[in-house]
Specification:
With 197 residues, this protein is an all-alpha fold. It has one domain.
Length: 197
């Protein structure tokens, strides 16, 4: 068991890395309008896509996932056993960055990054779930929700018990961040991929 001090360090580092708003940074560098003033107001890749810049959206996915990977790997190197704390810290940082008034992204790409490092077989299964739901429903948020809810279940079934607990906490945060999407899904008004917004 890691010490409480090490766990706090891991959470702090995870939070700091997770709170880097790559979507906002990239769109500002590209000279687009403020990302927080369009669409959902999120700083994530889906909202970046609403600017019409597919390349920026793809880069945002990679960088947001990458900061999750970096947080977990750094914790593993500096404070072995604290990887789960860093993972949760990274998600909280992405979703609630202090420097943006605690209004960040929805956490899915960063969650994918931490899952890749914590238990890559779980990530592979969840990627299949994401792709299948997306292919059937053509709704990005539904695919993300399906994959993130499946993650702790898959981890438990594959006997990654400690990872399952971490992913369950992450899933709760990501689902909370998708509450607006969930309301639209229930109302049947959530936009499908390619549909005008």
């Amino acid at each position: 068991m890691p010490s409480q001090v090490d766990a706090l360090y891991a959470i702090a580092v995870g939070y700091l890395l997770g709170s880097i708003p790559f979507g906002l940074i990239l769109t500002r560098l590209a000279g687009t309008e403020d990302l927080r003033s369009i669409g959902s107001g999120s700083i994530g890749a889906t909202n970046v896509l609403r600017t019409g810049r597919k390349g920026l959206a793809a880069a945002t996915v990679v960088l947001d996932a990458g900061k999750g990977v970096a947080a977990v790997l750094l914790a593993a190197r500096l404070w072995p056993g604290t990887e789960g704390y860093a993972a949760v810290g990274a998600i909280v940082g992405h979703c609630f960055p202090a420097w943006l008034g605690f209004r960040g992204g929805k956490g899915f790409a960063t969650a994918a990054g931490v899952c890749l490092v914590l238990a890559w077989p779980v990530m592979l299964v969840c990627a299949v779930v994401w792709a299948a739901v997306l292919a059937i429903g053509r709704i990005s948020s539904l695919a993300s929700l399906g994959a993130i809810v499946a993650a702790p279940v898959v981890a438990w079934l594959l006997e990654f018990d400690e990872v399952a607990v971490v992913l369950a906490i992450i899933a709760l945060i990501v689902v909370f961040q998708h509450r607006g999407n969930i309301a639209r899904l229930r109302a049947g008004t959530e936009a499908k991929i390619g549909a005008p917004r």
